[in-house]
Write a structure and sequence with these properties.
181 residues, UDP N-Acetylglucosamine Acyltransferase, domain 1, 6-stranded parallel sheet, 22 strands, binds coenzyme A
Length: 181
């Protein structure tokens, strides 16, 4: 009973934040930090506890249908992150569309304040394993798999498995895709 009330309250909070979710979603905590009105998602959004979407300044985060994000993962969006349909993100991942400036500016309290921005795109059916870091400017192609622990700093071709630091293609995926789903 208490759980149902908490869940309803959470749904109201999400709607009130200005976030747009077309349809059903499941989450255990309020997962949007910052500019929630720039958050847009299709239906069947499933966010595990302590996963966070952080949308800052004019960042725009768009997510397709049937999205799953596991515990303790973070999407850090200052600019533009676009995620397709049926994308699964494992636990402890970090996805960002910015870098800090490499120059140290001691006149500023946060001395690497300026940001270099570049969009991140994650296409349909991508699976991102546990502990993956995805850096700015990267596109991960359709059906790709990013193995646990990888750091992705370059585009990942569709239908490939990448692994390692930095991530490189380990093999082409030729598993069947069930077209009925
Ligand atoms: C990618 C994965 C699914 C294995 O897929 P697979 O098709 O069985 O791949 P293989 O074991 O044949 O590995 C292919 C190559 O990639 C390498 N590889 C696989 N996973 C790797 C990883 N996490 N880090 C580094 N290299 C890896 C293998 O060593 C192999 O390299 P080689 O050809 O030089 O020997 C698995 O390794 C993985 O990372 N799973 C993620 C698990 C996870 O995060 N679970 C949380 C649930 S969301």
């Amino acid at each position: 009973m208490l759980k149902r009330i908490l869940y309803k309250w959470l749904r109201v909070r999400i709607r009130r934040s200005g976030a747009k979710i077309d349809g059903d979603f499941y989450c255990e905590s309020f997962f949007i930090k910052g500019t929630a009105k720039n958050f847009r998602s299709a239906n069947h959004l499933y966010i595990e506890k302590d996963a966070i979407m952080s949308i800052k300044e004019n960042g725009k985060l768009t997510i397709g249908a049937y999205f799953y994000m596991n515990h303790y993962s973070i999407i850090d969006c200052y600019y533009q992150i676009t995620i397709g349909n049926r994308v699964q993100i494992g636990p402890h991942c970090y996805i960002a569309d910015f870098d800090h400036d490499l120059v140290v500016d001691l006149n500023r309290p946060f001395h690497r304040g300026d940001k270099k921005l570049a969009p991140v795109i994650i296409e349909d059916n991508v699976w991102i394993g546990a502990g993956v870091t995805i850096l700015k400017g990267v596109t991960i192609g359709k059906n790709a798999i990013v193995a646990a622990g990888a750091v992705v700093n370059k585009d990942v071709p569709a239908n490939t498995l990448v692994a390692g630091v930095p991530a490189t293609v380990k093999k082409v995926i030729d598993y069947p895709v069930n077209a009925n789903t």
